[in-house]
């Protein structure tokens, strides 16, 4: 059988082609784009319900309890919480990598920011799950 | 497209104007930090900012230091911050930028003297993206053919003159010198999307690092600064997409 010489433009000319090219930075960038779009709509709906349809002064435990009768609102709120925190923390990660240059300061600032985000996520999630 | 030269408009090109220049100066042998000095020179409206700088250097203060070579917007030696924007001094006319000029060295690179900066970090980042054709195979006694469509894909990024206007206008680069910067990505783009090149994967791997394309926050400063009119931000986005979809 005659061997075929592949054109240099051919994608499979390189023998050691890896399974995946994308890495954490790739996905973290994509996450920012996608979560940004989702958060835009989540925040709009949240803002409309909490500030236009109802007044914040009427946001009582009874109001939240009535709302959480429907588990979909729990999921909505949890999505807003987790996506908002992840999006915000990842954005801060970019900024810290750029602006906090000393290694010691970077460890301190990063652990503080990640710690606070983690605590907020834990407390928020706990509130949503255990609300009765 | 060639280097952009703005139209002189309705101003009399031969009219002599008093040009007031405020220049950020630094002499490493004397100064501990940069300081401002002011000059006034007579220039025609059709003169370039470089003409005014030459006038100062040749008739007022011979110690004023700046780089320039071709003086026609081709070599990319004389990038500087003119009234807050990165420009080539040789292609911006007095009638265009006005008679009150504030001139500083480009930002984000160490100043050597006056308007001269150390370009080595910039060139090191340029070299890091392997900015030359990689084609290991032997094409025989003939050219490496390329269709007009394939050539058009990277036409925009062939125009770069490495003046560093884009890279030194990038707010991320000012803060983080590890970022390869827009110019390096533009020059990587020129080969990544070249159908004859076989080094695409290596370049995409380099730009897929923390210091690569993901540092770009699309502030568009680079696109505005480019004296060659290269759509720099778009080129960066095309490289991002190539990495994301693993396809050029």
UniProtKB/TrEMBL annotation, chain A:
The chain crosses the membrane at residues 30-53, 73-95, 107-131. SUPFAM superfamilies: Fumarate reductase respiratory complex transmembrane subunits. The keyword Metal-binding applies. GO terms for cellular component: membrane. It comes from the Bacteria. The keyword Iron applies. One of its GO terms (molecular function) is metal ion binding. InterPro entries: SQR/QFR_C/D (IPR034804), SuccDH_FuR_B_TM-su (IPR000701). Keywords: Heme, Iron, Membrane, Metal-binding, Transmembrane, Transmembrane helix. It is found in: Membrane. Pfam families: Sdh_cyt. This is Succinate dehydrogenase / fumarate reductase membrane anchor subunit. The lineage of its organism: Bacteria, Bacillati, Actinomycetota, Acidimicrobiia, Acidimicrobiales.
From TrEMBL, chain B:
Pfam families: Fer2_3, Fer4_8. Its cofactor is [2Fe-2S] cluster; [3Fe-4S] cluster; [4Fe-4S] cluster. Transmembrane segments: none annotated. SUPFAM superfamilies: 2Fe-2S ferredoxin-like (SSF54292), alpha-helical ferredoxin (SSF46548). Residues 28-109 form the 2Fe-2S ferredoxin-type domain. Binds 1 [2Fe-2S] cluster. Keywords: 2Fe-2S, 3Fe-4S, 4Fe-4S, Iron, Iron-sulfur, Metal-binding, Oxidoreductase, Tricarboxylic acid cycle. Its EC number is 1.3.5.1. It catalyses: a menaquinone + succinate = a menaquinol + fumarate. InterPro entries: 2Fe-2S_ferredoxin-like_sf, 2Fe-2S_ferredoxin-type, 4Fe4S_Fe-S-bd, 4Fe4S_Fe_S_CS, Beta-grasp_dom_sf, Helical_ferredxn, SDH/FRD_Iron-Sulfur, Succ_DH/fum_Rdtase_Fe-S. One of its GO terms (molecular function) is 3 iron, 4 sulfur cluster binding. One of its GO terms (biological process) is tricarboxylic acid cycle. Pathway: Carbohydrate metabolism; tricarboxylic acid cycle. Residues 150-180 form the 4Fe-4S ferredoxin-type domain. Belongs to the succinate dehydrogenase/fumarate reductase iron-sulfur protein family. This is Fumarate reductase iron-sulfur subunit. It comes from Ferrithrix thermotolerans DSM 19514.
């Amino acid at each position: 059988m005659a061997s075929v010489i592949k054109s240099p433009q051919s994608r499979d000319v390189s023998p050691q082609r890896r399974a995946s090219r994308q890495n954490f930075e790739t996905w973290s960038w994509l996450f920012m784009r996608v979560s940004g779009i989702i958060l835009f709509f989540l925040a709009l709906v949240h803002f409309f319900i909490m500030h236009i349809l109802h007044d914040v002064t009427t946001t009582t435990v009874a109001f939240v309890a009535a709302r959480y009768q429907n588990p979909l609102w729990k999921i909505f709120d949890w999505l807003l919480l987790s996506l908002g925190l992840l999006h915000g923390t990842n954005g801060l990660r970019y900024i810290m990598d750029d602006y906090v240059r000393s290694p010691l300061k970077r460890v301190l600032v990063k652990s503080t920011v990640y710690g606070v985000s983690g605590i907020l996520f834990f407390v928020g999630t706990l509130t949503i799950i255990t609300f009765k | 497209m060639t280097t952009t030269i703005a139209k002189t408009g309705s101003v009399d090109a031969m009219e002599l104007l008093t040009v007031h220049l405020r220049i950020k100066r630094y002499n490493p042998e004397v100064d501990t930090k940069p300081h401002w000095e002011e000059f006034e020179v007579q220039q025609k409206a059709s003169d370039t900012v470089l003409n005014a700088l030459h006038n100062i250097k040749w008739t007022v203060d011979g110690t004023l230091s700046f780089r320039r070579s071709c003086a026609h917007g081709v070599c990319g030696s004389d990038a500087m911050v003119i009234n807050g924007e990165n420009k080539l001094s040789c292609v911006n006319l007095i009638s265009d930028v006005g008679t009150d000029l504030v001139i500083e060295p480009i930002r984000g690179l160490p100043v050597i003297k006056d308007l001269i900066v150390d370009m080595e970090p910039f060139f090191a980042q340029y070299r890091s993206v392997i900015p030359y054709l990689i084609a290991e195979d032997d094409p025989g006694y003939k050219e490496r053919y390329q269709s007009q469509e394939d050539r058009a894909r990277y036409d925009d990024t062939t125009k770069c003159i490495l003046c560093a206007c884009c890279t030194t206008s990038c707010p991320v680069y000012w803060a983080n010198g590890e970022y390869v910067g827009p110019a390096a990505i533009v020059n990587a783009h020129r080969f990544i999307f070249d159908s004859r090149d076989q080094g695409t994967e290596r370049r995409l791997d380099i730009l897929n690092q923390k210091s690569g394309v993901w540092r770009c926050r699309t502030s568009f400063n680079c696109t505005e600064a480019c004296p060659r009119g290269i759509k720099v931000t778009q080129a960066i986005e095309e490289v991002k997409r190539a990495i994301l979809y693993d396809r050029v």
